[in-house]
Structure formats: structure tokens, C-alpha cells
Amino acid sequence: MLPGIRRRVYYTHKNNISKWPVLPGAADGRPTQSTYVGSFELKEGKHFHYFDLLVDKSGITSEPQGEAPSQTQLNKLTGVHPGTKEEATMLSAYFNNSDLVFISQDADGKYRVTGSEMSQTKATVNQDGGQGFTGTASTTVNVEAGDLIPQPFYEGEIDTEDGIVNPQGSGSGD
């Protein structure tokens, strides 16, 4: 498997979601599959938005949190956006104190979800204006979200402001 994630991350506020896809599970609530079934259904007029990334500086990770028998995963997404212009700066205003869900595409072309119904998502945004005339300015989005498994896979449609992205049919996500 190649490291990292591809160049675009989709996001929406959880209040925009009218129905979550289903992560199949056993009677005790534990997931039995790692892929959501169905698509996120959004409220009328709501969409997923996106920001583009520097792929060699961005990625997803997951680590265990808590103690047995209540151990869960802390899923993390780091997205480094090139630049600090107005649009990138507005990410911090929207992401700060907002409960969001993020969909990113891993290097193998599979879409992954960071954020769940079970816990609040924490997103922070840092900006670096670069140094001197050769420094690279960037905006870094750090996301943490609890879930039952490492970033679940997602094969449903992504309803964006630019139209529908179909993870099963598009392959590239770009």
C-alpha cells in the first residue's frame, strides 16, 4: 500500500446529515464490517464541501483509546492545504468548534470516513505564512474523532456543491 492520502478532503457539518450510512454490526453494537452500507443523506440544499491538499504532507492514522471492555479508536486526519489565502483562512472559522464529518481518499483509492455519530469531532487549523521569500505558506487541518474502528471505508455517493462524486466509479477523487 502506498502511504498518504489523495489530494481532496470532503467535509460537512453533522447537522447537515439527515441520515447516516450504516456500519453493519452485531447485536452487542460492535461492527461486523469495516465498510459503511449506503450513502450520507443530506438535508435539502446541503452539500459536502472540499479542500485540496499537499499529498506528501497529509495522511490518516488511528490509535486505540480507553480500556477494555470499552476500548475504541481515535481516528486522526492531517490535511495540509497549500497557502493561507482567504479561503484557507475561512476553514479555521468554520472548523473551530464545529462537529464535522470528513471523507478522504487513501493512496489505494479507497474512501475513508473520519467522524462518527458516537462522538464529537475536534478540528483545529494552524497556518504557517512561510519564512523569507522561499518559504512555503500552508494551512494545516488536524482532525480527531472517536469511532469503533479505524476510519471506516465509504463506497456511497458524496453530494458536493459541484455534483455527485461516486467512490465506486470515479477512482481518482480529483
Write up what this structure looks like.
With 174 residues, the chain is mostly beta strands. The protein has one domain (5-165). It has 2 helices and 13 strands, in the order E-E-E-E-E-E-H-E-E-E-E-E-E-E-H. Strands 4-1-7-8-11 form a 5-stranded antiparallel beta sheet, with no helix packed on it. A hairpin with a 6-residue loop joins strand 5 and strand 6 (72-82).
Which key terms come to mind for this protein?
mainly beta, five-stranded antiparallel sheet, 2 helices, 13 strands, 8% helix
What is the straight-line distance between the termini? 19 Å
Number of domains: 1
Q: Could you say which overall geometry the principal axes of the C-alpha atoms support?
A: globular
Query: Would you tell me the structural class of the helices and strands?
Result: mainly beta
Helix content: under 10%
Whole-angstrom Rg: 16 Å
Order of adjacent strands in the largest pleated sheet:
4-1-7-8-11
Low-confidence spans: pLDDT under 50, at least 5 residues? none
Largest sheet: 5 strands, antiparallel
How many runs of DSSP E, i.e. beta strands?
13
As an assembly, this protein is single chain
Number of helical segments with 4 or more residues: 2
Q: What's the mean pLDDT score?
A: 89
**Helix and strand element order:** EEEEEEHEEEEEEEH
Please state roughly what percent of the residues sit in beta strands, choosing from under 5%, 5-15%, 15-25%, 25-35%, 35-45% or over 45%: 35-45%
